[in-house]
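Sanity check

After download, print the first record. It should look like this:
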Amino acid sequence: MDSPIWLFLFGILSGFALLRVPLTGFLEPVNPIVDVIGVLAVLLFSIVLILKGVMHLIDSRRR
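Expected structure tokens:
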């Protein structure tokens, strides 16, 4: 398995971690921004993994 695949998987996990982190105190106002960044990270890395999987299926059918 390619190492970028693991990086994309860890990117998804870090996006979920950003969604679950509790921000209190002076960081509480940036909580909506952190949530948006977490959702975007999960969506982006998931789409990239899906596209890489489809590209691999298409490439393997050509052989």
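If your output differs, re-run the checksum step. Summary of this record's structure: DSSP finds two helices and no strands in the chain.
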